[in-house]
Amino acid sequence: MLTGEIYKPWLEKKDPLARMAYWLTYVVAAIGIGASVVRCWFAAKSVNMMTGNLCLILDDEFNGDSLDTDIWDYEVTMGGFGNNEFEMTTDSSNNTFLRDGYLYILPTLTSDVIGRDAIMNGYTYNITGCTTGGTNDTSTCGAVSNITGGTVINPVMSARINTKKSRSIRYGRVEIKAKNPNGDWLWPALWMLPVNNTYGPWPMSGEIDIMESRGNGLSYADQGSNYVQGSLNWGPLTWLNEVWRTTGWWTERRTSFASGFHTYAMEWDENFIRIYVDSRLHGMLQVSFNVPFFDRGDFPPVVTNGSQQVVLENPWASGSKSTPFDIPFYLIMNVAVGGTNGWFPDNVGDKPWFNTATDAMQQFAEEQDKWAATWPEDDYSRALVVDYVKMWQKC
């Protein structure tokens, strides 16, 4: 071989294996590249995308001095809604306020207002500005603490606001930029309910959870503050919710969603719902409306509620494949605390109450020194802080 000449083994008649290996390497590489291109093309083609136009119906950047009550309504109650939550929700500026272009939904201690002893025994508290009904029609306007009877005044004050009277969409897009709160047993949520219970009471007419999380730290064993979850709640009876079939989440391994702002988005039309954080690549949930929800549930003809046998009927029989998610929904933002519906399961973490206990709120209140110590003192770290809210209606 001459100096500087490139050796070409495939030209050597005496080494056919080397020549075969050379061409085989390139053929395999070409097949791999081609397969990747085909796979990417089919994957991109299969992604559901909204069709038609979107019309902006809400763009609130919270730049004023106070919450715009032409858009937002407060839900003021001590009833705990359908989850038996431990907070009361108020319209107080202590719990909802604007600061530096952000909306704060801030949980505070009731003991700072009426004292610790009053929470536990011998005190009657009536909430100011109580709204009747609430989104789940469970509003309660007062409570009496009685240590013997196991009843206490709600130990936390927080807030819950909604757009039911002002803004709703039937198909469209929602985008919210927010920072979650830190603190054990805090439950921030950005979610939607139907304006009218067209197909029956919850969950028969559906619920869309754009973001739910927990304030417990990264070491919490059942998805702490480094997880956010999106889901659809639906079911043919008030006590039969198939949310487990349509739930997903996104997680950050080393950071918390309470450490900075993230953008939560929901896209929704006749064919699908997609929920994600920051990017479509960070998808929490995508549900294609390719199967009617009654079929998706794979329900038996008869179900049991205690000792009662119930013949199961399809409440969505007259609808489409997207029913019950084919009616107008409005937006809710809140910070709940605790509750007995299972969002905080028993025997996970240093949980101070049992979900099956009749005095669960009392158990929680008795351990205030422990859980309150995990709540940051500064408002920014303890609050759900919202930068902006945008809603588009498909038009």
From TrEMBL:
Which GO biological process entries does UniProt record here? carbohydrate metabolic process
Say which family it is in: Belongs to the glycosyl hydrolase 16 family.
For this protein, the record's InterPro entries field holds: Beta-glucanase-like, ConA-like_dom_sf, Glycosyl_Hydrlase_16
Domain GH16 positions: 60-395
Listed A to Z, the keywords are: Hydrolase, Membrane, Transmembrane, Transmembrane helix
Which domain of life does the UniProt lineage start with?
Eukaryota
High-level lineage:
Eukaryota, Fungi, Dikarya, Basidiomycota, Agaricomycotina
Record-annotated membrane-spanning stretches = 20-42
The keyword Transferase belongs to this UniProt entry's keyword annotation: no
Q: Which organism is it from?
A: Heliocybe sulcata
GO molecular-function terms, A-Z: hydrolase activity, hydrolyzing O-glycosyl compounds
Query: Mind telling me what this protein is named?
Result: Putative member of glycoside hydrolase family GH16
